[in-house]
Amino acid sequence: MQQDFRDKILQVFPTIIYRDNIPTIKKPKSIEKLTFKNGFTTIDKVLDLPEFKEIKTELEKHLKIYVYDILDISKHIEFYITRSWLFKRLKVEGAGETHNHRNSFFTGTLYLELDEGKDYIGFRRSTEYSYVNYDYEKSNIYNQQQVNYFPKKNDLIIFDAKMYHQVGPHVTNNERLALPFEVFGKGYFGKAQTLEAYNHGELYLK
To answer: What is the mean pLDDT of the chain?
Structure first.
């Protein structure tokens, strides 16, 4: 019987991804009128379209839960959605490039259509520095380099924009439709820390 070492583990600074399912969201019929190029809408503010108003309101509600209730960020900082677009696949295609989102604080995706259990998003471990590349006897939560999440229809995820991730391959000809978005902030940053040390400045973004 294998020994359980979990009581000997001290986990610090966990990486978190907000996840929820929003069954009330309906895909706007007007999507068919939008122009796509290479799988992406040619506009990057789809949430500002009138027909997406209810979806945007719902996403903003969950964004507040993530930043204020889970991360406990001070409410004098206001977060808002900047870019938003649609990503569509209608045929078998390979995985996308591993990437993160610059010029944003957080990013998220709402899954409007997909093949549940087949379509996924892969999150990559940051490799800023490594002494060597280890070989492992088996993968576990402490050594794995990638975690694949298989969302369900109307799943929403929100996470730190610096996290590297990858759109998994689409292995069928069924529609995969996702609504990614980026989040920025405005207000005073570091306001509570300016008296702690001379090198802790205050930043105001508007």
So the answer is: 91
